[in-house]
Amino acid sequence: xxxxxxLARLAKTVELRKAGNDSVCNLSLAFSYGKKDxxxxxxxxxxxxxxxxxxxxxxxxxxxVAGKNVVVTIDDIHTEEYQGKNGTxxxxxGRVSKLDFAADSGQxxxxxxxAPRPAAPVRQPQSGGAxxxxxxDDDIPFAPMPRKALHSI
Length: 153
Prior knowledge:
Elements: E1 3-10, E2 16-19, E3 22-32, E4 45-53, H1 54-60, E5 69-84, E6 87-101, H2 147-152
Parallel strand pairs: 4-6
Antiparallel strand pairs: 1-3, 1-5, 2-3, 3-4, 5-6
């Protein structure tokens, strides 16, 4: 089964409709590729007609507006012939299996700042010669080696 994955722009706002007992949205997707044309200033575009079915269509229909960038995976991608203005033509069609929204190219998207962590209590060093280990926990997961054993290693 052929599959297409990529970033596309929605050409028109989708309309949710019923097909039997299922909900469906038809998407007209523009996939741009390659370098900009020197005369037009635009990248070449491949147009794909895809359908979005079921609960996914119901949940996303209101957000699928013209001009929105989407990252989409289309399953069962194939060509179909249709009668166009200039005679018979072909188009790519398929069924959307995954869809996510991409950041719009004109807007900078910043990651939300993480919640501040509470500051850890700072222990003050004790003054005077040897350190005091009386405040340390007794739950040490290993037994310390005797000093003589360390020198023999």
